[in-house]
Write a structure and sequence with these properties.
Length: 108
């Protein structure tokens, strides 16, 4: 099967190849002996989150602390938005009045 790589390094896999390996959102990419080898990775979203947490060194106690912190009641004053500094401007006259005056024709 033949596939073309775009100028942005994007590659569309042939339908027959994708159907042969089954649906997969992610592929492991390896370079072996001048060849690019794609291996489908069936990753559950929960597994991805757990892998990231492990990579960051966060355990169950850290997660529980973070959830407890997020659920704390925050006083209403702390959440309210500060008043926006608005300028008070004098109302402007509508531009069409000026145009209308220019169009008036003087009678002789």
């Amino acid at each position: 099967m033949l596939a073309k790589i775009t100028s942005k390094n994007q590659l569309t896999l042939p339908k027959a190849a994708v159907e042969a390996v089954g649906p997969s959102e992610y592929f492991d990419v390896e370079v072996r002996g001048g060849q690019i080898v794609l291996t489908p990775v069936r990753m559950q979203r929960g597994d991805a989150v757990r892998a990231k947490l492990a990579e960051l060194g966060l355990g169950q106690a850290d997660i529980a602390d973070a959830i407890r912190w997020a659920r704390k009641a925050i006083p209403a004053q702390a959440v309210s938005e500060p008043a926006a500094p608005y300028r008070s401007e004098k109302p402007r006259k509508h531009a069409t009045a000026k145009v209308a005056r220019k169009r008036t024709v003087r009678s002789k």
